[in-house]
Write a structure and sequence with these properties.
- It is a single chain.
- The protein has a domain of 59 residues: Urease, subunit C, domain 1 (Roll).
- The chain is globular and about 30 Å long.
- It is mostly beta strands.
- The N and C termini lie far apart (48 Å).
- It is built from one helix and seven strands; from the N terminus they run E-E-E-E-E-E-E-H.
- Strands 1, 2, 3, 4 and 5 form a five-stranded mixed beta sheet that branches.
- Helix content is 8%, strand content 47%.
C-alpha cells in the first residue's frame, strides 16, 4: 500500500545536507520511503494531510533541531571543530 503524507514542513536530505521543504509530501510503501519533495505525481492508496506540522521522515539526523519557527533555520551539530569535540570525549 502506497501512502502519501502532506505536511506544511518536511525535513529532507539533498546534496549532502538537510533541507527544509515548505508544503511538501512524503510517500512511503510498506516500511520504505519512496519519495520526499514538494510534489508527487504518482498514484497513492492513502493520503494523510497533517496540515502545518513538521515531518522528519526516517529519522534523518536525530540531532537536527528547529528554531522557534521552522521557517527560521535547522540547527545541527555539524560544523563543530573536531578538536573542540575531542576535548569533551577524552
Amino acid at each position: 500500500m502506497r501512502t502519501a503524507i502532506k505536511a506544511g514542513w518536511i525535513v529532507g536530505y539533498d546534496n549532502g545536507g538537510h533541507t527544509l521543504i515548505r508544503n511538501g509530501v512524503v510517500v512511503f510503501e510498506g516500511n520504505r520511503i519512496t519519495s520526499v519533495g514538494p510534489t508527487f505525481d504518482g498514484s497513492v492508496d492513502r493520503e494523510i494531510d497533517v496540515g502545518d506540522k513538521l515531518v522528519s521522515p526516517g529519522f534523518i539526523d536525530t540531532h537536527v533541531r528547529y528554531g522557534h519557527r521552522a521557517s527560521h533555520r535547522l540547527l545541527t551539530d555539524t560544523g563543530r571543530h573536531s578538536s573542540t569535540v575531542s576535548r569533551f570525549w577524552r
